[in-house]
Design goal:
The chain contains 17 helices and seven strands. By secondary structure, the chain is an alpha+beta fold. It has two domains: about 190 residues, H-NOX domain (Alpha-Beta Complex); about 130 residues, Orthogonal Bundle (Arc Repressor Mutant, subunit A). Strands 3-4-7-5-6 form a five-stranded mixed beta sheet. Helix 11 packs across helix 14, helix 12 crosses helix 13 and helix 15 packs across helix 16. It is globular.
């Protein structure tokens, strides 16, 4: 588990769009003035909490957290959200996100289900105190955004429970479309137990077109010239979204049985596992070369259970750890060679 959080790259833009000065936020939070100007913003739990408290101080808008947690344009979803939206159902999306949190940061998404209700909570593992109210708003609005975008409906929870004292209740009830209970013993969103099975209309979205447009364009240019193993590899890459696709699933894409898929790969000198590893290797190189994804985010998107498994696999492929490989690739494109090495990060 990482001890840090990655701050969304669009946060500064979203704050300015909401009429909130980034400089005022950082000053209120006691954080570095240029923190959000960095290509990758990584903070501790203490700094994350301070940042969101700063947003609360700098913005007079009581709905600022709800607005920042809601994304309306699909092209602005981050790769992890796109991966969640590509799953089969609301419940599967939240399970995938819970696994991603375990892999990438000191945070948990907790699910509790009984016969009629399904509750979702966020737990901050390294926190010394309660999370800022605005951070809770952001998290809950984000869950609702994923649910509504994925299902294509105006789904609403049964209720939202907030530990804070009552304030601006009508704003929250309008946003969530349900009763909001203030002064509760926990912060939780409660859905119907049956909501977890709601199918996502985004399940078969063109994931690569959003995650790796350059790579997807290369695939399109080669289409029609692909061998059967290459077509299988491309199908696997479309399904690599926080999980490892099974042979039966890929066989269904080609409208053939698993046995036929296996036989045709063997005729070409391949096994399904070999093609799966090639698919991961190719995408790993692309993500490391063409994005600012953290290593644990890349590991998640490629369907590994933890970042160490990804590092071991990449070392076998390239003979070097992914962080060093990425650094070496960046050095190749820097002018003047050694004189600019100080600018390279891994």
């Amino acid at each position: 588990m990482s001890k840090h959080f990655r701050v969304p790259g669009r946060l500064a833009i979203r704050l300015e769009e909401a009429g909130t000065r980034v400089s005022a936020v950082l000053q209120s939070a006691g954080l570095e003035p240029g923190l959000l100007d960095q290509p990758r913003v990584v903070v501790t739990t203490e700094e994350l909490f301070a940042l969101w408290r700063g947003v609360g101080v700098a913005s007079p808008n009581p709905a600022i957290g709800l607005e920042l947690g809601t994304e309306t344009k699909a092209e602005h979803f981050d790769p992890i959200a796109v991966a969640a939206l590509s799953t089969a159902s609301f419940g599967e999306a939240m399970r995938q996100m819970a696994r991603y949190k375990q892999l990438s940061c000191p945070e948990e998404i907790i699910h509790e289900t009984d016969e009629s209700e399904w509750s979702i909570q966020f737990r901050w593992l390294l926190a010394d105190g309660a999370e800022p109210a605005i951070l809770t708003d952001v998290c809950f609005a984000w869950v609702l955004c994923i649910a509504r975008h994925g299902t294509g409906t105006r789904i609403s929870p049964l209720r939202v429970e907030l530990a804070r004292q009552a304030a601006h209740g009508k704003i929250f009830e309008r946003h969530f479309g349900c009763p909001v209970v203030f002064g509760a013993v926990r912060n939780a969103m409660i859905f119907r137990a049956s909501d977890a099975a709601l199918p996502f209309v985004t399940r078969n979205a063109e994931l690569l077109a959003m995650l790796a447009p350059q790579f997807d364009e290369e695939l399109k240019q080669r289409k029609g010239e692909e061998t059967f193993p290459e077509r299988v590899r491309a199908a696997i890459q479309r399904k690599l979204a926080g999980r490892r696709p099974k042979m039966q699933e890929i066989a269904r894409e080609f409208h053939i049985s698993s046995r036929t898929l296996q036989r045709r790969l063997q005729d070409a000198g391949y096994s399904f596992q070999q093609v799966l590893e090639e698919a991961r290797h190719q995408l790993a190189r692309h993500y490391l070369n063409n994005s600012l994804l953290e290593l644990n985010e890349t590991a998640y998107l490629l369907g590994y259970e933890d970042s160490n498994s990804f590092v071991r696999a990449f070392r076998m492929w390239e003979g070097t750890p992914p962080a060093l490989w990425r650094g070496a690739q960046r050095e190749k494109v820097l002018p003047d060679g050694p004189t600019t090495r100080g600018a390279v990060t891994s």
